[in-house]
Specification:
It is a single chain. With 344 residues, this protein is mostly beta strands. 8% of the residues lie in helices and 42% in strands. The strands form 5 sheets. The chain has a 9-stranded antiparallel beta sheet with strand order 9-10-12-13-22-19-18-15-16, covered by helices on one side. A 7-stranded antiparallel beta sheet has the order 11-8-7-14-21-20-17. Strands 1-2-3-5 form a 4-stranded antiparallel beta sheet, with no helix packed on it. A hairpin with a 2-residue loop joins strand 23 and strand 24. The relative contact order is 0.15.
């Protein structure tokens, strides 16, 4: 008994801590296929090969609850696009650049790809860089687009930065494009936060869209019982005269076996004004696509967005975190630290 009482005193006197407190805040392992990391609150992995960009599907583990993401990955990246149809030259487009609309997948809005291919499925391999700080670990990755529409140049640069801070159940990320081409309304298409795999709503109890007025922004699983197009319902299109206070898109995870609710998984776009269009529709799974940008840009200029993605116990908690970081578009990181930027 005397020894047990004396140990804490001895540790304090010599400036030591018990072994349990000596555990590193982060562990990072890396092989040919992915980077795996563990923080005190999360586990995650970043793929190098195959389906790349963002955080790997099913890998974001919330240590507090044991929950995992339900889709194909988080902050996953596609093409550079703009409004307008490619029908006049569709037969001349290489690779996966043709964009067919007027269907359940893409809806009725005419859009066309400027550069590709789709990064997540066609880039095939990325080379993520790991940056470790005193209270965070970060991943940076990039890719130059190799396909372009007629009259457009290839080579626009996509950059992604993901920061996992100590003690947080979420990560901060940013996507940035340095454009090789000019456009009246260039945008980047991403998954934000990510899609939702389910069978008749078994894996989630509700979806939350902060910019939707009906029912406090909440949507029941029954609304996703059948496939519908992006512009049939739940579509957000930017109106500069009434930009919402927040852009938060989230789903409430539910255990399909017990029916018990877990945490929310949310994706927050920290500057609402950068969101050009966003939808939440059913196409075999719930597809949560977001388009960022959609404003005039010249060759050599940049645009992008910053996000917070992760787990929360309530909508109120999401709003509190959102408001703490609201208004930022970019993310900068070095071994000395990280900071959000007002401009990308």
């Amino acid at each position: 008994m005397f020894v047990r009482l004396l140990l804490p005193v001895l540790f304090a006197l010599v400036g030591l801590a018990p072994a349990a407190d000596d555990k590193p805040a982060f562990t990072v392992t890396e092989d040919n296929d992915r980077v795996r990391l563990t923080t005190d609150s999360l586990e995650a992995s970043i793929k190098k090969k195959g389906y790349v960009s963002g955080v790997e599907a099913g890998s974001l583990l919330d240590k507090k609850t044991g929950a995992r993401d339900l889709g194909f990955g988080l902050d996953i990246v596609d093409w550079i696009m703009e409004p307008g149809s490619d029908e006049a030259y569709r037969d001349k487009l290489p690779g996966d650049l043709p964009y067919v609309f007027n269907n359940l997948f893409h809806g009725k809005h005419a859009k066309r790809s400027i550069e590709g291919p789709q990064i997540c499925t066609q880039a095939k391999q990325l080379k993520p860089t790991v940056i470790k700080g005193a209270d965070f670990v970060a991943i940076q990755q990039e890719h130059n687009y190799t396909l372009a529409a007629p009259g457009k140049k290839t080579g626009s640069k996509w950059e992604q930065t993901i920061v996992f801070p100590r003690g947080k159940r979420y990560f901060i990320s940013a996507d940035k494009i340095t454009a090789k081409n000019a456009s009246d309304a260039m945008f980047l298409r991403i998954d934000m936060p990510g899609h939702i795999k389910h069978k008749n709503g078994d894996t989630f109890s509700e979806v939350y869209l902060s910019y939707r007025n009906e029912n406090g922004g909440k949507i029941e699983p029954k609304e996703f019982a059948k496939d519908f197009a992006p512009d049939d319902k739940f579509l957000y299109t930017r109106d500069d005269k009434k930009i919402p206070k927040r852009i938060i898109r989230a789903y409430h995870i539910r255990d399909p076996k017990t029916g018990k609710d877990g945490p929310w998984l949310a994706g927050m776009t920290l500057d609402p004004g950068v969101v050009y269009e966003a939808w939440c529709h059913q196409r075999g799974y719930i597809c949560m696509i977001e388009e960022i940008g959609g404003r005039p840009i010249k060759a050599g200029e940049t645009f992008g967005a910053a996000f917070i993605v992760g787990y929360f116990d309530s909508i109120e908690e999401m709003e509190k975190v959102y408001d703490e970081f609201a208004g930022h578009q970019g993310l900068e990181v070095s071994a000395k630290g990280w900071k959000l930027l007002r401009k990308n």
